[in-house]
């Protein structure tokens, strides 16, 4: 854990910084909407009550739904994340401010009337200061909630600590999950304390501070938004992890080698495939690498006509063209799917090359499987039937513990992804799925209609990867990025040069 | 309308005012004139319309019909805040703003009329001293750190600060303990004598009304039953309702008044006869004929000497 913290220091700090930025800006905007609104409505009780209901209802809309609705209008990244967070933060701030302003002792209000005090004096010197403790408790509730919810930004490439949580869930990596969750909890506590401290400042100082901060923050965000709105460039995105990031960088290098005039922007780390796909539909993203299996199993689920990779690709290509007018370019060589692996010694002793080989000796061997793999029908359950596997013992363990068990020879067989860098790190031998039980997952660039119209010339550049990159190559590159912590960009460029795809 | 344009000798004049809440008439066609410099007390049972009448003078309540004149001007014809800056207001709960210090509270009206902070501070310090609060100790305290009596003293300072033509007081002492009440009654009397500010004072304590008022108006169900000097009202009540209200009440001082002025000892060893605070001075005198001292309200020991010194002063 400490080691991971040290290795990823840079990423963690920048994710933390972005998370803080997202949270503060969202709560500040929400405060700037909710507090004046409460002031406006404090003497109009009926409308005030209605507003209370409305902000409450907004809160019950699931965050995924809000993000989905926002993508067509404001695209992806920071802006929709902030809008969603602002919507959530409105309720606690409005509710508390409204309560604070309307529950002031009526005798005090009567006194302020009777002394002939001005409108602004009554508001800034009497009502707001008296409501301040409640307003701050609203801000604190909002802040804690927003820090927790801001992890959703990772779903749409908005960055922040959510990236660790998503990555942790995806890779079944508890350490990353823990980093994301712990830091976000710590942040919540620290901010809560800071707000408590701020609550002793005067209304005037607070107003000035809030407005200054917001002007800066919104300016920054507006600048980012403006940049993403510039239409002439190509936006290449990718899901979470090293592999999509390496591929994105290759796409960029290949395009810019042929067409230096084209501007390319990279948007890595989308935590949610369907949001990424939506972004492609809405021209927020122009290109991203997608797997054939994912298209037919997740995006447009349908029965596979065959497990033959070429046929699966054709089926996927047709669906994408028919549904969205997307162009699915030629796939690369490697596949990224489930597989069984053994250590080198076991492979040698039992002469194991394929899963059929394993089936013959399976009663002598034990396995350690990831829980998901074990329980899914298209995981071990189906595999066992297809090959007649009859393992001596099966342990269901944490992914990270599997390799320990292998090293100690407690087990000999485990499940892996075919491009898992651990294959290299642990010196594993991947057994060929000779009966093609697992559906093939081949990666290929997916392009929307807009980019095909504006930049058809990039197709030739991207097609240079068709049929390239073997599973071993990908394992090796993933190894360099995740284990050796090399930059995805460097790794991608080196590979292309080595294969003479770049001059 | 027959209202006279020149009402100079009247600080306040209500001219056929009427107020209805939810179809119920709360103040019925009421006319009343309060002289400049007068200490005018409004008494009546709960719900008789005292507060409503008082609030029509600083326009916290808008009369449905009729007119209200302050210093001869129809208040409906002048800017609201100008009117209110000239009228002090003291509520039953002191209604000090809890987020402001004693000074800031007392200076709100001075602030509103644009008096400099320095001048305001001088004025507030003088007034605090006059109501028996040491400015050095009290100026920067928050209301939280004040007793009920101290709060009400600050409330009085706040009402006096801008040198108003008129002060409205709505049961200002009814939430206080008997001793503080007596002390503040004495205090407001002194202040009235010193500044000669017109005061309209609402209470439902008849004894208080008799002690303080130059004139008393008795209200019942939104109407005035009688307006007159205290002895007139006691000796010649206009009807049986007024008589019932003031029966057995005299403006004679009770023991509380003696204690309020500090004529007692705290030393309490030994056995003494006990008396309550609302007992009359004559009861006390009778007991002091036989005993050397009497224990009042379980805490104030009053000796013959205390009694004699009090009688000599009053
Ligand atoms: N804002 C209001 N809305 C409706 N009714 C009111 C309102 N203010 C006063 N009333 C009613 O008007 C009547 C007179 O009230 P007011 O406060 O003037 O009485 P009061 O003589 O001051 O009584 P108390 O001695 O209890 O303070 C009462 O019946 C009261 O219920
Ligand atoms: Mg009242």
Description:
The complex is a heterodimer of chains A (503) and B (314). Chain A starts with a helix and ends in a 5-residue tail after the last helix. The mean pLDDT of chain A is 89. Chain A has three domains: 228 residues, MetI-like fold (Orthogonal Bundle); 161 residues, Periplasmic binding protein-like II (D-Maltodextrin-Binding Protein, domain 2); 93 residues, Osmoprotection protein (prox), domain 2 (D-Maltodextrin-Binding Protein, domain 2), CATH 3.40.190.120. Chain A is built from 24 helices and ten strands. The longest helix of chain A is centred in the first third of the chain and has 33 residues. In chain A, the strands form three sheets. A five-stranded mixed beta sheet of chain A has the order 7-6-8-5-9. In chain A, strands 3-10-4 form a three-stranded antiparallel beta sheet. In chain B, α7 packs parallel to α8. Chains A and B meet through α6 and α7 of A and α2 and α4 of B. Adenosine-5'-triphosphate (ATP) binds next to α1 of chain B.
Write the layout of secondary structure elements.
The complex is a heterodimer of chains A (503) and B (314).
Chain A: H1 2-7, H2 9-41, H3 45-60, H4 63-74, H5 78-102, H6 106-114, H7 119-149, H8 162-171, H9 174-198, H10 203-229, E1 234-239, H11 242-258, E2 264-270, H12 273-281, E3 287-291, H13 292-299, H14 309-324, E4 327-328, E5 338-343, H15 344-350, H16 355-361, E6 366-369, H17 371-375, H18 377-387, E7 393-396, H19 399-407, E8 413-417, H20 421-425, E9 428-431, E10 443-447, H21 449-454, H22 458-462, H23 471-483, H24 488-498
Parallel strand pairs in A: 1-2, 6-7, 6-8
Antiparallel strand pairs in A: 3-10, 4-10, 5-8, 5-9
Chain B: E1 10-21, E2 24-35, E3 39-44, H1 50-57, E4 65-70, E5 73-74, H2 80-85, E6 87-90, H3 102-106, H4 108-112, H5 117-130, H6 135-138, H7 148-160, E7 166-170, H8 178-195, E8 198-203, H9 206-212, E9 215-220, E10 223-228, H10 230-235, H11 240-246, H12 255-260, E11 273-275, H13 281-290, E12 293-296, E13 300-303, H14 304-313
Parallel strand pairs in B: 3-8, 3-9, 6-7, 7-8, 11-12
Antiparallel strand pairs in B: 1-2, 1-4, 4-5, 9-10, 12-13
Helix pairs in contact in B: 7-8
Bound molecules: adenosine-5'-triphosphate and magnesium ion.
Adenosine-5'-triphosphate (ATP) is lined by residues 21-22, 26, 44, 46-52, 204 of chain B.
């Amino acid at each position: 854990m400490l080691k991971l913290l040290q290795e990823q220091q840079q990423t963690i700090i920048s994710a933390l910084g972005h998370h803080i930025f997202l949270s503060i800006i969202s709560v500040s905007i929400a405060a700037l909407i909710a507090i004046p609104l409460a002031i406006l409505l404090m003497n109009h009780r009926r409308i005030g009550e209605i507003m209370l209901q409305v902000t409450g209802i907004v809160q019950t809309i699931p965050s995924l739904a809000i993000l989905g609705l926002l993508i067509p209008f404001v695209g992806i990244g920071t802006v929709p994340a902030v809008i969603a967070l602002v919507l959530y933060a409105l309720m606690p701030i409005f509710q508390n401010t409204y309560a604070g302003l309307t529950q002031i002792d009526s005798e005090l209000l009567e006194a302020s009337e009777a002394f002939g005090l001005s409108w602004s004096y009554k508001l800034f010197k009497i009502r707001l200061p008296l409501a301040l403790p409640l307003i701050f408790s609203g801000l604190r509730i909002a802040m804690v909630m927003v820090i927790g919810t801001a992890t959703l930004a990772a779903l749409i490439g908005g960055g922040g600590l959510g990236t660790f949580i998503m990555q942790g869930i995806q890779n079944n990596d508890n350490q990353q999950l823990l980093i994301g969750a712990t830091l976000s909890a710590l942040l919540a506590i620290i901010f809560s304390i800071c707000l408590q401290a701020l609550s002793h400042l005067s209304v005037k100082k607070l107003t000035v501070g809030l407005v200054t901060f917001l002007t800066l923050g919104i300016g920054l965000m507006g600048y980012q938004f403006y940049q993403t709105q510039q239409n002439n460039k190509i936006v290449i995105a990718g899901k979470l992890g090293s592999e999509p990031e390496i591929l994105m960088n290759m796409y960029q290098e290949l395009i810019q080698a042929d067409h230096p005039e084209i501007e390319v922007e990279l948007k890595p780390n989308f935590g949610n495939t369907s949001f990424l796909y939506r972004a492609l539909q809405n021209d927020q993203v122009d290109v991203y690498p997608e797997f054939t299996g994912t298209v037919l199993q997740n995006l447009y689920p349908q029965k596979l006509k065959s497990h033959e990779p070429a046929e699966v690709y054709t089926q996927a290509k047709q669906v994408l063209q028919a549904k969205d007018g997307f162009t699915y370019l030629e796939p690369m060589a490697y596949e990224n799917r489930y597989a069984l692996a053994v250590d080198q010694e076991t492979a040698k002793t039992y002469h194991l090359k394929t899963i059929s080989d394993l089936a013959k000796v399976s009663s002598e061997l034990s396995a350690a499987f990831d829980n998901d793999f074990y329980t899914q029908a298209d995981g071990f359950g189906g595999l066992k039937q297809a090959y007649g596997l009859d393992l001596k013992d099966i342990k269901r363990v944490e992914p990270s513990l599997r390799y320990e068990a292998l090293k100690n020879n407690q087990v000999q067989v485990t499940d892996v992804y075919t491009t898992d860098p651990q294959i290299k790190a642990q010196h594993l031998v991947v057994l060929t799925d000779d009966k093609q039980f697992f559906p093939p997952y081949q990666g290929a660039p997916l392009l929307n209609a807009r980019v095909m119209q504006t930049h058809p010339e990039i197709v030739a550049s991207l097609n240079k990867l068709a049929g390239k990159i073997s599973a071993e190559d990908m394992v090796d590159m993933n190894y360099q990025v995740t284990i050796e912590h090399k930059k995805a960009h460097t790794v991608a460029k080196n590979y292309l040069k080595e294969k003479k795809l770049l001059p | 309308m027959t209202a006279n344009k020149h009402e100079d000798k009247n600080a306040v004049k209500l001219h056929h005012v009427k107020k209805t809440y939810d179809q119920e008439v709360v103040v019925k066609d009421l006319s009343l004139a309060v002289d400049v410099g007068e200490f005018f007390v409004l008494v009546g049972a709960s719900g008789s319309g005292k507060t409503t009448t008082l609030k029509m003078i600083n326009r916290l309540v808008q009369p449905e019909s009729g007119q209200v004149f302050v210093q001869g001007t129809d208040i409906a014809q002048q800017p609201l805040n100008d009117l209110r800056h000239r009228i002090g207001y003291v509520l039953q709960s002191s209604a000090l703003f809890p987020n402001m210090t004693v000074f800031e509270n007392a200076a709100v009206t001075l602030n509103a009329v644009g008096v400099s902070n320095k001048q305001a501070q001088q004025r507030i310090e003088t007034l605090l001293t006059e109501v028996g609060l040491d400015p050095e100790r009290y100026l920067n305290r928050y209301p939280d750190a004040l007793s009920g009596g101290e709060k009400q003293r600050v409330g009085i300072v706040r009402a006096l600060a801008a040198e108003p033509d008129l002060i409205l007081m709505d049961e200002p002492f009814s939430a206080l303990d008997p001793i503080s009440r007596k002390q503040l009654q004495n205090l407001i009397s002194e202040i009235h004598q010193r500044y000669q500010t017109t005061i309209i004072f609402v209470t439902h304590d008849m004894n208080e009304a008799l002690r303080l008022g130059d004139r008393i108006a008795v209200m019942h169900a939104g109407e005035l039953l009688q307006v007159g000097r205290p002895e007139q009202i006691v000796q010649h009540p206009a009807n049986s309702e007024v008589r019932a209200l003031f029966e057995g009440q005299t403006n004679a001082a009770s023991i509380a008044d003696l204690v309020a002025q500090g004529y007692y000892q705290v030393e309490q060893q030994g056995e003494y006869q006990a008396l309550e605070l609302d007992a009359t001075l004559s009861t006390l005198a009778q007991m002091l004929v036989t005993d050397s001292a009497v224990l009042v309200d379980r805490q104030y020991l009053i000796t013959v000497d205390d009694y004699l010194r009090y009688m000599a002063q009053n």
